[in-house]
Structures
1.
Amino acid sequence: MRNSPLLPYFLIITAGVVWGGTFSLALIATADGTHPVMLTSYQVVISAIFFIGICLYSRVPLFRLQRLPIYTLLALLGIILPDLLYYFAAPHLNAGILSITVSTVPLFTYAIMWAMRYEQMILKRALGILLGMTAILLLVLPDQELSSINASYWILAVVLCAVCYAIENVYISEGINIDLDIRELLCGSNIVATIILVPTTAWMGVGVPVSWILTPAALAISTIALSSTLAYMMFFYTIRTAGPVFASQCAYIVTISGILWGIIIFAEVHTIWVWLSVAVMMAGLALVTPAARAGTKLAEQTI
């Protein structure tokens, strides 16, 4: 199936379903009031350990000092900043709205690709971006009956996460040597994130006792770390083989599955504005069609 034209679709669907579940897990993780910096730190430590094991088993370099700038940029844009914003926002929003906001990733990805002249401006894609922004306004402007009076600000904060992911997508596709192994990339970025966050957690004094590891919050974070690790590997592979715009269509699946997970786990009920936002967002995404990436090929490796 490795060379099958269906492989990219299989990867983004699987990654989307897995990622969609992490929004509900984030609500569980933040329910006991554990500080977001601690949650993010714990998550990256688990992810780093997981990737170190993968690299050792596969005999792939764990970390190369000359690639520290790459690791650091991806650690900031793809791990630290979005994770912190999500964990700060989670107590104020619900899983459905969290998942809808990530749908803006392909819209921002295309906008950045166009601004940097990696993509041509096409009218229907521009309309797709406008529809995506309209969908966000449908979440921000009306009263969504959420418990937080600052919910609209937290929605915009999560949209900022999508911007970070979009910049990361473009950088992976256009700014990194095609021969760089995905496993090394993810391992190195998680190691850098760990080096940044663990001392920060200690300095802030937001650590938790060892017994916390057995709490629902810790178990939820552990599940997020492992499932995100799997999803990231599939997603990054898709970026390098099918292009960042195509890979970002994973947001379709993330949004739908995220809403469904929230309904199944928390019995979430959404307003008409939320469902209208979903419909408008889906229409916008449909207009931002995948870009052809003829000849793009990832270095030979096994995921």
2.
Amino acid sequence: MTNEKNDLEVTNLAPINPKIWDSFLKNLYRSQWPEKLPHPILDNLYQTSSLRPKKFFSMKNNNALTGISATNIEQKISRAVTFIGIDRQQFSKPDSIKLIQTNINYLKKMNIQTMNIQTEEFDTQIQKILIQLGFKKIRKYSNLIHDSKILQSVEIPDSIQLGSLQIGDEKKFTDILNKSFEKEWGFCPNTVEEIIHSIYSSNHNLNDIVILKKNNEFISFNWTQIFNKNIGKIGMIGVHPKFQNLGIGKITVLAGMNYLKSNKIKTITLEVDEANLRAIKLYTALEFKKYFSTIWFEKIL
């Protein structure tokens, strides 16, 4: 660190007052994303409660916080995901490069092999920097919204039971989550301890995890989240491989949507990989529409 005027500081989060971090994010949200809908990158910058290792860096000019980064380290698959927030009113290309390079250097020391960064679709400033640093575009994700008052009814076969996650079901839930996503891009298997930590955190509720069973076996789930009295989110939808391509996915989506609507949620959001054409087709048929897109970049370290 240095005290020279106009010089850049890159520090760990520890010396920064959490209130300053929170205030910076709120101001970033207001200045760069005036919508009331969830912003995926900002959501990830806010969500710091996880059992997986995280690394935080900050960027300062004239003693004012101008940029931050939060890196999630997935040691099982030797990957790290970095989320970046930069005050565009004080944007500096050299400073932004240094913030990203600091993360790269740190991850190399950790022997992490792959680094991913999510950017807004039209954020050409950061995208040009990433390409300059050797990153490549690999994925595009869309954030969808359903705000129609009309919702398709869900017809559940008599052989399937609909309910919510119960205390004691954590291992079953971990198993179906891992099996449902084991072939998906970027998925890192969860331990039971990690799932317990997530589902019992302050912003989650057991009832928010809708479960479909057959003969007491978990066959699918819809992990929803309620942000406030008007906005809810479908965070994850998983179907056990044995029950895929049988129409269970649509039933599971609608079951979660009906749960959110029963809690007086007017607007439902979700995020989807645009390479997942089957999911895009389903969500379009259910009257979801796109409101935001992000581009994923990758660098082999």
